[in-house]
Fold each of these.
Amino acid sequence: MDTGAGADGADGMDGLARQQEVLPGLLATLPDSYGKEPMPPHMLDYPLLLSTLYERAVRIYPHQEIVSVNPDGSVHRTDYGETDLRIRKLVSALAGLGIEPGDPVGTLAFNTHRHHEVYWATANTGRICHTVNIRLFPEQIRYIVDHARDRVVFVERSQLPTVEPLAADLPGVANWVLMDCEPSETSLPGAIGYEDLIADAAPAGEWPQLDERSPHMYCYTSGTTGNPKGVAYTQRSTYLHTLTAIAYRPVGPPDNVMPVVPMFHAAAWGLPFTGTAAGAKLTYPGEDLSAVALVDLIEGEQVTFSAGVPTVWLAIQHYLDANPDRDTSSIHSFLCGGSAVPRAMIDWFWRNRGIRVVHAWGMTETNPLATMANLRPEMESWDWERQLDFLETQGLPAPGLRVKIVDDEGEELPHDGEAFGELLIQGPWIAAEYLRDPRSAETMVDGWLRTGDVCKITPEGYVRITDRSKDVIKSGGEWISSIDVENVIMGHPKVTEAAVVGLAHPKWQERPVALVVVQAGVQVTGEDMASYLSGKVARWWLPDEYVFVDEVPKTSTGKFDKKVIRDAYSDLLQR
Ligand code: AMP
């Protein structure tokens, strides 16, 4: 198995040595005698394996539903029990293709029941699901399929135009498994239909006892510069993330979980694992992520919990504004993150729909949820506006994780809600390295992950992101938070999206400029925006220009692409 993870010594001592190597200083206060004697077992050294969570859920809730939307819009219905049989057949079929435990399996797919099957067939058996972000440039897709060493790739029909021209440059891929079409529809070599692949396969039996440190998933970051970097999620890291996520934002068998965030972006924030382990109904929305399609699903399937980036929910907000009769009463809350969530959106969903927007922060490197804006008990009785001051932050670190902020010299800064610096994080589901990538040394330092996010931490422990370090605006030597300004602009009732960037300025070094999208058919001027913002942000934070556009450029994961914006408008203030 080429995983980079060594075998653990039976007495746990190898584990300690490894821990000290990865986390220098963590054990510094222990006496010399500590760890010299072999540790007795005390408790079963039972590995943290995803198959244990899976097996329990299937045994107890075999009739729990899994709903998935097909490309033609029809709905596929199945349940945990039926899916279990298909997953077991898929395991044998993968073995038949020569894919053994430790081998990666690529996917280029939306959120569907078949993608769910690949997730679990790999996780339960030590194979590695490598979810390829279908929105990356073709060259990046070629790079990561090659870098991950995928030998089989599962692909949907909608992705054929992207992968067919790449196939000749991916000689390592022996088979392409077509998830929703037939081999006759493609020129891909070694193409096999998914249903044909599993049709006659014998269902696999017991799940193997794996090393809990072995990977079950590769996720690549979607960095705007350089090649994407791979992160290997281990059994242990996802197991601990799953249980913590269930406890911290409770979901259970009465829930219907709809992951809108793609399964190719940081494992859909873990929802396929969390939802399954919790025994919840799962609703996979497939390809159509339009507001109307998602509201159809919420209403028709009675979705109770979901997760997605702000742009998805902003579109839903505007759709519901125009269609007030649509029923969203089933959904109690959704996770929102990936980029900063506007305060006005949290406010709108609560006041108009009784839905709690749970602001969360994470990265591909944090497998992926790390902070969540839950209220502390004493805040429950506060008035709504005061609660919003905390609900709009990126939230409290999840139990098990440690965070700190540091200045440019690496000195720790106080958690006083004023000082801001780079956020560093460590814990059992935080990446220790990038997969076969020398860039690890820049990001993983002394057992801490450098997030590249500039943050404050309040005395109550809430993390508030000011900016990506490369997006912070420096005007006349003072910092301006682009996120804070965007947040206020997006509170304007006629604005649907706003991105603020710093552009070069002859006098002030940089000044903020806002790209603004307004609702269709509505007229808003720069003066309107300036007077709306006046009094809401410091005067010198007011953007120098408002550029009205039809759409803000976005990255492959739906974030505002500030690099593209800066490049496109680089001369705007140079007059
Ligand atoms: P990715 O690895 O693609 O998920 O990107 C991770 C980055 O997205 C983080 O380092 C942040 O810069 C940004 N991000 C994620 N969640 C949030 C959030 N709630 N608010 C602001 N930025 C966020």
Note: The two ends are 59 Å apart (CA to CA).
Amino acid sequence: MNILFATPECAPYVKTGGLGDVSGALPAALASLGHDVRVLLPAYKGMKVHGEIGDGVDLPAFGPWPAAQLLPVRVESGVTMLLLACPSLYQRAGGPYVDASGHDYEDNVLRFGLLSRVAALLGTHATPMAGWQADVVHANDWPCALAPLYLAQARADVPWHRTAASVITIHNMAFQGVFPMHSADLLGIPGRWRGIDGVEFWGQLSMLKAGLQLADAITTVSPTYAREIQTPDFGAGLDGVLRARADRLTGILNGIDTQVWSPAHDTLLLHPYSAGDFAGKARNKAALQKQLGLAADPKAMLFGVVSRLTSQKGIDLVLQHLDALLAGGGQLAVLGLGDPALQQALGEAARRLPRQVHVTVGFNEQLAHRIEAGADCFLMPSRFEPCGLNQMYSQAYGTPPLVSATGGLADSVTDATDDTAGGTGFVMRESGAPGFADALARAKQAWADPATWRRIQSNGMARSFGWEGSAGRYVDVYRHAQAAAHQGPR
Ligand code: ADP
Ligand code: GLC
């Protein structure tokens, strides 16, 4: 099958969160199942992609939009990257979505309108890649979410030509790509899809809603989140749309890239280790304590956090329970970036208690790996979590996670109090402060008994979180999407 995987970020080239990791690993897993996978990604400033670069392909002009090119690069994993080169839109200081001062780029509607449009074009008979047309266009999150609409439009305009099936994956309902309705002209949204059954969302234009309305199949990144987003508490205003399309919605748990996230092969660690060699983990802990200026105490229970600092991630609960975390010599190592108020509150704690708390504000891949390896227990008390990857990395690294019972956290961590033989972490029994306090007390109790702790660590390390199973489930969804596409417009 020819699969076009469209994404605004892809590790290791450009990453702000879990979507980057997924985009780096899932296409390679699909390619290893024998599919021809091409990843469409904007060519951002400073991005280095190593591989054999093919000839640039000019894209047709879309009205007044700036001219753009596709640069094909065949990379080691067997995937072809299609870099969408449009210097005036993508060659900028700052991240993929925000400028250097953290504000959304004013022309995001065009930047990601173009990404969606090119994704769709690659699934039509007018594909610019000579001889290659996608059978399935897999669009990820709001920045690609207009692709299903453009494909539906192509299918209606030229029904005698074959047009790819469309799949949209929701990585986070909190980000929807909402713009003023007048953008519909610029984007070329046909009149019939400007209303409530199309892109309209409280008088504005929602890119995500377009994708949810018009994709042949919808997936999200865990089975529990697939259920949650059909309720008002988690649906971010689109739960009604999702309920109406529930027969097209599937939850597929993300995998992890076991080449990158395995303690035995992790090139970013000072001391690689495995389930058969916990001494290596102790050495990583000592090195981390030293690096961060924490007391060099092997017996101190070291809690780790690597996270975007937003209300989603429940970091306020960590702050609220600081005394309980640090009681008896506990330590906390945080790596994160985001909400200035959270950064400041964490920074104050670190200044007050430098031997027990360390906070690194920034994005640091190496430190993220070293915290996963050096911490004893990983904290992830998210308010909602579509999938979450760090709780899986933590289990693979023998660092039992403390998590809330939501989304992919609920689907990937087994509570060690409930399941004393097979538990891999600590799952909050209720949300909010009481749930966190109770789970923390249970984690500390387990830590006090080294044999119990070792069993929980080993259980997590024995789990397989690779992409093999989930990649196969995506292929099933692609086939269902193709069948649905053939049945004509919905
Ligand atoms: P989300 O995508 O919601 O941020 P995930 O758990 O799915 O959450 O993925 C987050 C990814 O980003 C993980 O690979 C994590 O290690 C990484 N990450 C988050 N914050 C940082 C940071 N400050 N520095 C380095 N890596 C980070
Ligand atoms: C989003 C979610 C996270 C998920 C990631 C990759 O950023 O917040 O839970 O793991 O996407 O799917």
Note: The first helix runs from residue 18 to 32.
